[in-house]
Amino acid sequence: MTVLTGRKAAIFEHSETFAGSREQWRARGRFFHGEDEAYLRFLIPEGARVLEIGCGTGDTLAALKPSYGVGVDFSPAMVEVARRLHPELHFSVGDAEDPATIAALQGPFDYIVVLDTIGSIDDCQAFMAGLHGLCTRETRLVVGYFSHLWYPLLSLAERLGKRMPTPNQNVLSPADVRALASLADFDPVKSEQRLLSPLPLFGLGRLLNRFVSILPGFRALSLRHYVVCRSLRAQGPAPVSATVVVPARNERGNIAPAVERIPRFCDDIEIIFIEGHSKDGTFEEMERVKALHPDRDIKTMTQPGKGKADAVFTAFDAARGDVLMILDADLTMPPEQLPKFWDAIASGKGEFINGSRLVYDMDEGAMRFLNLIANRTFSYLFSWLLNQRYTDTLCGTKVMRRSDYQRLKAGKAYFGDFDPFGDFDLIFGASKLNLKSIDMPIRYAARSYGETQISRFSHGWMLLQMVVFAFFRIKAQ
């Protein structure tokens, strides 16, 4: 390990001194650590490859139940305790700001966790920049830290013997952490502030932390803040093929125009028409159009069940493209705009591209006034619930990599079968995977054939249900 001088030497001496009593201090703060770890378990699924930098005695790493867990700490005494308490995990002694320490780790990892250690780092930007070699495109860096607004209370708790003494720390706001991450070529995907009470308060603490600390206004007063980032240097190979899924029910007049209008935005495009038990000859039209275009890779299917979600996921499971795209058969999202979605995901600028009809002016009659008001209202609610900006949740065009869809599908049990349209299956799943979401503004066109299958009242009620569902399954953890 490199020779430690000045401030870092003092931190090292402090860690060595308190290693033997760390477990007793953690026991005193059992409620706080439980709340902290509960949210981390939401961000980091069980069975992942996890690296924790500044692992201390390894209790948080163990709580995440990784399939392969590695902890690094520059205190030999802390690492000795961690190895004794958690023999199933791997611990090493080293200074995380020393490139040799990082180079010796057997990456890549699914998650790199830095809790509070960011306050002891001399050069946070250089430290983060040194982590790219441990990342793949899917890796997420999770930084957790105390709010600087709480420093006076935390210092008082130390003087009263209620909290383990802590050396002087960097003063970092959530905006500071995001800015440092950006400077180090890490892209902040989402950030959250939570936990108003570090004490149980006879059961009130849990209620405050789960339901109040996440509310606007109260959120800024929370004790903990978390930032989730992705590496911009570890993007991996660019996609080379795409599958455009066109779910269609009673859309016979739109099948031929869909094929004619889908641009050749990449060299390898598969088009899957999946029919939903139509009564106007839609499937027969699909077969006719397929025969007319032998130069295009067109497949036709009939969905086994009912609803758009069943159609989309059935087609996604059969798709071969690196990138999966949904194009509603009503063509109100002009197919000519699909290249923008491709460019956004192929360039790595986003990982989940969501169409938005509510930015540009739309065709007259494309959306009824009450629908417009409801969509705008729900977009604000879902942006808050998901900690990512969504201007339109119900636009049918959504784009993601097939590999991310497969991961989303593997974790779908967390949400269950709740969404007949599939929009929220994808949005909530992308949020749970911490994918970088981008809203893609489109010119929303009026339907030229058939009738809308959207009911403003029944689907408005569904949106309300989705808000409640997302609050309990995503926000109020």
Provide a compact summary of the structure.
The chain is an alpha/beta fold. The chain is 39% helix and 18% strand.
Give a quick set of tags describing it:
single chain, 477 residues, alpha/beta, Rossmann fold, Spore Coat Polysaccharide Biosynthesis Protein SpsA, Chain A, 7-stranded mixed β-sheet, 18 helices, 14 strands, 39% helix, 18% strand, elongated
Can you describe this structure?
With 477 residues, the chain is of the alpha/beta class. The chain folds into two domains: 6-231, Vaccinia Virus protein VP39 (Rossmann fold, 3-Layer(aba) Sandwich), CATH 3.40.50.150; 241-471, Spore Coat Polysaccharide Biosynthesis Protein SpsA, Chain A (Alpha-Beta Complex). The chain is built from 18 helices and 14 strands. The strands form two sheets. The chain has a seven-stranded mixed beta sheet, with helices on both faces. A seven-stranded mixed beta sheet has the order 10-9-8-11-13-12-14, sandwiched between helices. Helix 7 (124-129) links the parallel strand 4 and strand 5 (140-146). It is elongated. The two termini are 39 Å apart.
